[in-house]
Amino acid sequence: MTTDSSGTLATDDHTNHMKAALNLAQRGLGNVWPNPAVGCVIVQNGRVVGRGWTQPSGRPHAETEALQRAGELAKGATAYVTLEPCNHQGQTPPCSEALIAAGIKKTVIAAQDPDLRVAGTGITRLKEAGIEVQLGVCRYEADQLNKGFFSRVELSRPLFTLKIATTLDGKIATHSGESQWITGNLARRAAHRQRASHDGVMIGSGTALADNPSLTCRLPGISNEQRNRIVLDGRLRLPLDSQLVQTAGEVPVTVFTLPGDAAKQERIKQLENNGVRVRIAPAEAPQLDLEWVAKKLAENGLTRVFVEGGGTLAASLLKANIIDEIAWFRAPSVIGDDGLSAIDGLKLDKLAEMPTFTRKSLTQLGEDSLEILTRKL
Description:
The protein has helices at residues 12-26, 62-70, 95-101, 121-128, 139-145, 147-155, 185-196, 205-211, 243-246, 262-273, 290-299, 311-319; strands at residues 2-3, 9-10, 39-44, 47-53, 78-83, 106-111, 132-135, 159-166, 171-173, 200-204, 228-232, 253-257, 277-280, 304-307, 325-330, 340-341, 357-365, 368-375. The chain is of the alpha/beta class.
């Protein structure tokens, strides 16, 4: 047994049901922004009678889905919800009112919602209606699941995950530029699963020119309609015949660039005519302000961004202290010092200036490995 954030005893049943709700919530990652990914399990006399998770585009909400499946069996039941139920009228009625109307007797909540439209009011409303509320069961896991949503709400920027696929000595290509493929098929499929759990995929113009990528998730059953493809392109070099531009009408593409002359304005019009959304920096500068980019992505509703650029972009984001997690794929091979590095020079004078991370997990993928690291605060 464990205790929740208030010190209340959390039974094994509470923990198990909440873990089931968290597993359901995970299905929404990458598909439900700007909303959080939430899971809900409804239990009547020890038996699960309803399950739900946030649906694509963010609605219906998890509680609504679970209550619909439970029907009349929700009356007198316990609802396990991974995030505090909303208590404001948006495009759908408040989930707090839906739980009350269904006759839920007790609600077990993993984490409180930091959104100022909720921020404890959902819990208060449930208590006012006579529903027993227990907060904090599996809170750490719930906080980790919605780190991106919390980042958008509290820091006005998405969570950024840097994806790197290298040899043991940190190289992403030979000196001639050959890079396909350093890692094997299992690792590449895992990379697509990582991509699928993010709202957007970001690269720099160098990667766009060198690889002409599509940046879609190519796994069975995965939709790309919600996934933004983002290019940082200060000089606006993205070709009109690139895969990204040619498919912008089917899967969103956003290009961030610097102000320019009349020729650049004409280029912007051509991209926009092909369905590309162009965001122009507010002032001339040698390069794009990454904090401004992050803020604009958050304003657009994105909560999780997967970075797949080259060494220049990786170094720039690390220097800006924007990378929150690293998904590091490693192959058991060596290229040598003349190969292309995953991360360009950071020009550090002291070891104390190094960006540091903590290992979150390590997974073997055939001969390759995937290490997930999270930034030390």
